[in-house]
Amino acid sequence: MSLGLAYRVRIEPSFSAWREEARLLLRQGIAPDQVELVSTEQDHAMTFGFAPAPAPDPALAIQKPSVPKAFFELAEIVCCHKDPDRWQLLYRVLWRVQHERSLLLNELDEDVARMRRMDQQVRRDLHKMHAFLRFRMVSTPEDPEEHYISWYRPDHRILELAVPFFAERFAVMQWTILTDYASASWDPQSRAVTWGPGVPRSEAPPEDELEGMWRSYYSSIFNPARLNTRAMKAEMPVRYWANLPELNILPQLLAGAESRVGVMMQQQSSLSANTYVPNDHTLPVLRDAIPRCEGCELYKPATQAVFGVGLAHAPIMLVGEQPGDMEDVEGKPFVGPAGKVLDQIIAELGFDRDTMYVTNAVKHFKFVQRGKRRIHESPNLKEIGACRPWLLAELDAVQPQVVVCLGASAAKSLLGAKFALMKDRGKIVESPYAPRVVATIHPSAVLRAEGETKQVLYNYIRQDLALAAQTAGLAG
Ligand code: URA
Ligand code: SF4
After folding, report:
1. Against a cut of 0.85, is the pTM above it?
2. Which of 33, 130, 391, 431 is deepest in the core (most CB within 10 A)?
3. Which regions of the chain are under pLDDT 70?
4. Does ligand 1 have an atom closer than 6 angstroms to the CB of 358?
């Protein structure tokens, strides 16, 4: 029996607010088709016009809801989606999970499929923000301390999800990220994030006016030493004041950071392909621009930049280290001896390299000259970091289902300098820049190895590529 819509519940757009309401509704036994959960972002008026609430059915009341971990994890991401219907969807699935324990495993279920789709969209948006947000340095006469600011426009409400990444990466900087719905400011001294109002899209400054806006307004608000919440609320319309708690994150971040300036230079500005990467992330545009890159010193002795090749929207993207001697001459990745090993493994698995996208973490060949020979030299962390913007732009263009890092350099680029290749190879992991990444051995390690090790390493790569193919939904 359907009782018709009886309740309307307004949800502040945060996971905890939804969870509170959902718990109350479950306890009263209010079924999802009896209630409408609306976000306060959408709900500008209208709280009347509904039938008086019938008494909930006590038999349906759930005092101790069971919230499986899988639901919890999914819901935390889905609640950041901008779809106004998300609170309703989440409640419906939570309700159904109480009665169908294995609901989340049923990928054919419409609600579950929708949640998964939303989860993917939010994650993709998050990876983009990690990859492409840029800070600008500003300082004001009253506040000569360097402050880095960025105005970024995510598709979804992902600032809270994104902040830990920037707090870790730019732990020693004072920075602020402004989005259309909220802002976050990091203070390296207290290692705390201060949350604030957003800048509505209509008032968003063009890139070159960001600084002026900062000077006139935000610097006084966001200087944590002078932060005055009450004054700020009085000045900003309440609806822009996101209801976010002050948060202390990752207190260990500062450990080991020495010089604010030194680390900053290394991480953000001095050595980077950033300014050479076009905003248009389509492969032909990127390929066209890369010969002009001078993002690090490696372009000088090399013959040419070697850009990726392959299928434009390949499900699998292979990332090597850097071009070798032959690649440098021919201008294509993996055409030398390591490429032969790779081809053999791919063929054994029943695939074809043309159905993948193949590139490198660093686009120029690094070598030392010994007589007539050019001896390969691994790129260092600075060079890998400098070249990362090209790789991220390729990732954005191709949007592969799975990225395979061939060797430690590619793994360092996408999974961080501390990634332990031998320990963590062969596992699907999430990178800040891509949802599914697996790292494996570099094919040239097979060439260098002797005796039994050769076959062992070969099998590792084979196994890990098979896992990637399976994850990407390809049948071998
Ligand atoms: N090794 C790599 O990592 N990439 C190439 O393109 C060739 C060899
Ligand atoms: Fe640019 Fe990368 Fe070449 Fe350095 S290695 S010059 S960052 S393309």
Report:
1. no
2. 391
3. 1-6, 43-56, 139-144, 201-270, 475-476
4. no
pLDDT for res 103 = 94
Strand partners, 176: 149, 185
Cα 446 to Cα 450: distance, rounded to the nearest angstrom: 8
pLDDT at 8: 86
> Ligand 2 atom closest to Cα of 386?
7
User: The tokens of 225 are what?
Assistant: 């030493």
CA of 439 to the centre of ligand 1 (A): 15
Check pocket membership of 361 for ligand 1, CB cut-off 6 A.
no
Ligand 2 neighbours by CB, cut-off 6 Å: 273, 290, 293-296, 298-299, 305, 362-364, 386-387, 390
Q: Which domains does the chain have, with CATH numbers?
A: 8-127 (no CATH), 133-203 (no CATH), 209-268 (no CATH), 274-471 (3.40.470.10)
Helices (H) and strands (E) in the chain, counts: 17, 15
For 459, half-sphere exposure in the C-beta direction (CA atoms, 13 angstrom radius) is: 5
Q: What is the pLDDT of residue 138?
A: 73
